[in-house]
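Reopening this one. Same input as before:
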Amino acid sequence: MAAEPVKPVRSKTSEGSVAPLARTSNGVELSDQEERPLEDTVVKIFRCSKVVKGGRRFSFAALVVIGDREGTVGIGYGKAKEVPLAVEKAMKDAKKTLHKIALVGRTIPYQVNGKYRATKITLVPASPGTGVIAGSSARAVLELSGVQDVLTKVYGSCSAKNVVKATLDGLLRLRSKEAVESLRGVEVEAMKRW
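Same output, byte for byte:
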């Protein structure tokens, strides 16, 4: 009897298309997105104008963050002649770049720095009840990734694109206790703060 090749299992969405797979920071794919609906938020709409013979011609770009508030988050950027089309393109782009974030309860496991070009951001874990202390761009990424208690400080450029990407970079640098133990081959004790 010949063995049949194993086909990869991928989840189907309500439209019948294949659901995007989330990637963890170490490259492992997760396919349980149908259980947790993704929420999205538009961080900023950018308007660009081109001067032509008859006047000005406008185009729009949208920066969108999507996530399930349980550790999965993605960012997307789309450009079009109209705002709704730009937002739709950005959402498609964000679904292609979903990442899994290591969280400890309502906060992050430890203090971490994220960097993207001229922007640096420091993310500090906070005690329960603190909330997300961040600007609007960083807040969108943190809230949709599931972080509920965190302190942040942005250094350098504070443009929305850079802050969103620096925040995601900081979150992707986080490692869970189990991941650190398997990488180092030693047992690690997690500090209990609160």
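So the earlier flakiness isn't reproducible anymore. For the record, DSSP finds four helices and ten strands in the chain.
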